[in-house]
Task: structure prediction
Amino acid sequence: MAKKALVTGILGQDGPYLAKLLLDKGYKVYGLMRRYSNPSFDNLDYLGITKQVEFVEGDMADESSLLHLIKAILPDEVYNLAAQSFVGGSWQQAKLTTEINSLGVLYMLNAVKLFSPTTRYYQASTSEMFGLGNDDGYQDENTNFHPRSPYGISKVYAYWMTVNFRESYGLFTANGILFNHESPLRGIQFVTRKITDGVARIKLGLADKLALGNLDARRDWGFAGDYVEAMHLMLQQDKGDDYVVGTGENHSVRDFAREAFKCVGISDFEKYIVIDARFKRPAEVPDLKAKATKINALGWKPKVTFPELVKMMVEADLKRLKK
Ligand code: GDR
Result:
């Protein structure tokens, strides 16, 4: 019988890539959806899989909906990708961020424990938990957490709850501590997509400036399509565990912009950038770089390089805007 996977965050960036991977492997994929008046299936459509996903209604903030769904589906695997995932917005919406990213995880784990304790559970943890974690120049599974935003704090709670359900009740749970991962499906408010969209607009004469915040922040950027393979791999192991996932290379926001402008033949790129304080954060995470040897040892490696990723995103935005 086909394995059943419940994917939350199905309309986001990672949900569609993961759903595609699981469908290709023969899974039946259930996608958790909130009750929207106007949901956007664009990202699933982009990968051509909207019709293959079975949508189920529920909300991470509504425990009873999750209890009901887990009981009804009895999934082999749950991938919890649902989140208020925008770090920059989490200061303004700290409570909502906590309800979805922290309590939602508690509700989901509880539903699994009560109704489907053999389900394998994946938690979308994040490098934002490290924050100012150490100054070794990289972060791995042993790095301490010092989150710098309500978002990062909400994810630390979820991380530990995921560990605790493993240790307390013997559930198979895994934390994927993913560093930044991008794609043409990335939301427009995140810096990479904001840059590639802005560069495409400037190239096509639709804009003349690109407003950004801190250009010096450094991130370890990989391709989302590669990272969903790591998620699946974690749940195929003998026991649940926690893994850092990243490329081991980092670049500044300025580097990303330079590379993106280079893709459209613009080298004097800084003249198009204006610094807008609204895009700076009350507390910044200055520098993240993964040491992913643990997941590498399971056979996972990123395939798309930094220049390939930037080019893929710029080209997708050019194509979209030309339409
Ligand atoms: P991040 O991603 O906060 O790392 O979290 P984001 O792309 O928003 O910011 C990356 C860095 O760029 C700086 N920056 C700007 N950011 C945005 N959004 N807009 C700007 O104009 C801008 N200018 C500079 C930021 O200050 C920051 O340093 C992402 C999310 O997907 C999380 O959900 C996920 O957990 C982590 O990646 C891993």
Summary: The chain has ten helices and 13 strands. Residues 85, 87-88, 126-128, 178-180, 189-192, 194, 212-214, 217, 219, 253, 279, 281, 284 surround guanosine-5'-diphosphate-rhamnose (CB under 6 Å).
